[in-house]
Amino acid sequence: MNGYADLGTYWGFTAFVGAGVGFADNKASGFADRGLAYAMNGPLSATAGSFSGGARTSFAWAPMAGLDYDLAPNLKLELGYRYLNYGSLVVAGLRCIAGAGGALAVAGCNGVPLTVSSRGTLASSDFRLGLIWTLGELVPAPGPVVARY
After folding, report:
1. For the purposes of burial, counting CB atoms within 10 Å of the CB of 113, is it exposed (0-12), middle (13-18) or buried (19 or more)?
2. Are 6 and 14 in contact (CB under 8 A)?
3. Per-residue pLDDT tens digits for 75-87
4. Is residue 140 part of a domain?
5. Could you tell me the sign of the dihedral formed by the alpha carbons of 4, 124, 117, 100, in that order?
6. Domain range for 63
7. Which of 10, 36, 99, 146 has the fewest CB atoms within 10 Å around its CB?
8. Which tens digits make up the pLDDT trace of 81-128?
9. Is residue 138 situated within a structural domain?
10. Into how many domains does the chain fold?
11. In terms of pTM, does the model score above 0.70?
């Protein structure tokens, strides 16, 4: 859900600010790591590990700001900025294949923890450029009511 407030129109430019709140359904799958492991006084050996998918529903929020410019009576050009915070994500369930023989390991691979999480939060900074077409004729706001006594 988003809300916007116009800050006034000057020389055809309208400044606005906005805010949004909601929920983000974050999902991840297909994480894999393949590489080489080195054991003290031993040869290099192939290792591989993969994580099962993870999902989390998080609170999401976004502050916004920008400018509109009147190109025509019903057409505006908009330039805006939005920071969007999606929350966080944790992926668990490490399946580790250690060594060239392909033996399945139960614990983490060479000290790798059994869960992976996003550092801080998942977020984006967006600069947006767009056109706004208003349907119908723009009707000016009515003037103030003046009562004479």
Report:
1. exposed
2. yes
3. 899 999 999 998 8
4. no
5. positive
6. 2-133
7. 146
8. 999 998 887 776 666 665 433 443 444 455 555 566 666 678 899 999
9. no
10. 1
11. no
